[in-house]
# Entry
Amino acid sequence: MKPYALLILALFTFSLYAKDNPKEETSPSDFKRFQIGINISPDVCFRTLKNVSAGSIGDYIIKIRKEDEIVKPSYTAGLNVAFNIKKFVGLETGVQYSNKGYQTKMEDLEFAYPNPNNPNKAKFIYNFHCIDIPIKANFTIGKKKVRFFTSVGLTTNIFIKATSTGVLVYSNHTKRETIPISYNYKKVNISPLISVGIDYKINSRMNLRVEPTFRYGVLKLMDTPITTYLYSGGLNISYYFGL
# Structure
């Protein structure tokens, strides 16, 4: 199912719930119209590849890359502001820093002339650093301290820089070297996002949320014969304080 369909389905389902949901059994003082928060999300990132105009050689290159490239651990973190329309529905935005990308497998190296000073293994990590601005709708189910919720929305990804980190493994040490990547990457991308999780109400002002989250970049990363689309999934952990 495409990300658009997931967004529409989740939004429709929780809109129906919002119409039929009875009043919660909490005091009016528990409801805070505005909240500020912080979050961090350990993520797993990867990419999809598309052959735009490279012909049969492009298909071959994609096949080789699929065999060699794997997911990359990363993270997203930042500040958030929530506006709660009602106890069960609200809007949220914020400013996030995210590190996206992918990496190659650790491969054995072979040299025509063996040398003890040469590395034995190597891999490369491709990092895409972005400022993310999410806009999402939050829907909450439940009346107790522990409630269930879902979020759907869009994130604007503002590209900062790309780097490549080479990891070289020698017989007695490992060397890491990071260099900038100078490709002409798109400056802005759009990522639909969806999450489902648990909201724990610490007290009348504070609450904690834990939510598996999926994000998918719908715009291509660059204008090349073989282009890339980045996506990520993670466990987003947020703390909110009501004003």
